[in-house]
Design goal:
With 268 residues, this protein is an all-alpha fold. It has two domains: 105 residues, no CATH class; 139 residues, no CATH class. Helices cover 77% and strands 3% of the residues. It is built from nine helices and two strands. Helix 7 packs across helix 8.
Amino acid sequence: MGRIVTGLILAIGWLLLLLVGTYPLFCLVITAGGGLALYEFLRMSLQGRESKYILPVLIVGIFPLLGASLWGSGGMTSSLFLAFSVLIILTVIAYPSLDNGLVFVSKQWFGIFYIGFCASHLILLRSLSNGIFWLLVLTAITVFSDTAAYYVGRKFGKIKLCPALSPGKTRAGAVGGVVGGVLGGLVVAAIVFENANLAMVGILSLTLSAIGIIGDLIESLIKRVSGVKDSGQILPGHGGLLDRCDSILLTAPVLYYVLYWGHTALLK
């Protein structure tokens, strides 16, 4: 019951943010959410005496989100390079107290790129002229895919998809997730766009659904290596924020660049 209530609250809050919230408010929420997800990652990746570096790496990690909010795609890119530079300097300064300097900088750079950089694309999507509508399509793909994967996997799942990383995921669930994502993307695109090229939207939805599954497996890898079940406990019944946004972290950049380079193929 707690899982359902939490899911409804998240869904209503997200829809209100998209449909009623202003652009500055959206940027603030995504930056705060990205910071929280990155904090959950840092708690998993920085343990023992290295845990004292969580705060400085967290500050560095939200640079791309701040850059995207203030200056768009150019600001995001330059802020990402700035984050990389500061992280290297931090690693050099902290090196005597690190267990392994190369592992430290590699893991933290992965977290900054995976969360800080990828989440910035939600802000870039919102900044597009029809970005709210595409975010609604992306939301539908994610929600329908996750829901279909869960129920199809429970009903028909027998063969594990990737047991070494996530014993609960099955091939049947993955197929159901892709089908559900395609249906969700097509339905919402048909509603919000009068001139949607549904054939191309269907291909896009299929691609994003598959990438979302990969994003879910990446987060499972992080948790498996860190020896934890959930990234956090902030969301009752769901775990941490990173547990809920793992799929969209990879799909948001893909959607943004598809729209950036080939939006004319999606709208007639």
